[in-house]
Amino acid sequence: MSPRKTRKTARLSSDDAYYQMNLLRLISVILAGVFAALAPAGMPAARSAELKLTAAEAMPVDAEKLEWPDQLPHSRVARGTGNIAAAWLAGPTDRYPHGVLGDDREASRLVVATAGGRQLEVKLPSHRVFEDLEPRLADMDADGRDEILVVESDISMGASLAVYAVIDRRLVAVAATPFLGLANRWLNPLGVGDFDGDGRMDVALVATPHIGGKLRLYKYQPGQLVRFAEYSGVSTHRIGSTQLGLGRVVPAAPRDRLLVPDQSHQALILLEWTPAGWIKHARVSLPATLASSLSPVGRHVWRFDLHNGDSYTIAVVP
Ligand SMILES: [Ca+2]
Ligand SMILES: [Ca+2]
Questions:
Q1: In the chain, what percentage of residues exceed pLDDT 70?
Q2: Which ligand has the nearest atom to the CA of 142?
Q3: Among residues 257, 219, 260, which one has the least CA distance to residue 236?
Q4: Which of 258, 254, 266, 261 has the alpha carbon at shortest distance from 300?
Q5: Ligand 1 mean position, distance from CA 169 (Å)
């Protein structure tokens, strides 16, 4: 402190100091009231959930079982209860040498078995593959009929998320995100939910999870997927792994939330998008890096394995 400042402070009487302290208190109270009055209604609320980590029994490992002669290795059949009974990836090809999903084979065809017993398929042109291991069924437009979400990659433009539908007994593309723009750039679908609270289904995915993952949210609109939010620093996949479900949608009101690993896979975070920005409701560190998908074992509870051989459950406690 300079000598001049010291002298000035020393000249204050105790009455002066008391008066100044009360004046400062009054000003801070007025400013707090002004800011509260000006704050928009959509301002992020305080954190309102916690993540509870509990040691668990190891998960049983399902033997890999391909159900169809031409099914893509490591892939899983999606089952539906609506207009689509099953959907799967077929026609393995090595024409896109990216190889991040367990081997160097990707699918050239998407096949659907309808509830009425019909088999429909899409066969991609030679510069495209389905770079995925499981089609996902969801009714995106609330017409009572499921659509199919699948990763479709172009050999020079990288991945996009495509939505297919059964229309007039044909399987046709009805919407897609833009391709990421470069070969060997991949994205991992996370799930569907109402992330902006408008009553309509949205899509969540993690773009480029291996090199700096970005959680992106899209509105489903006729003919297109429109991006409305992004959150950096998360990853839902490790190169070479066939485990794609490292992140999950957490049902909540008024907006569904997202449980995602950070980029290092050593922590799980619970996120909610709001019109005023993202809220990080909770974060929990893991004893080792995440080694498996999060498997649902109850309402808002998932089980998973770590790379140290241990298993845990994570519960979202509202
Ligand atoms: Ca639909
Ligand atoms: Ca929505």
A1: 85
A2: 1
A3: 260
A4: 258
A5: 14
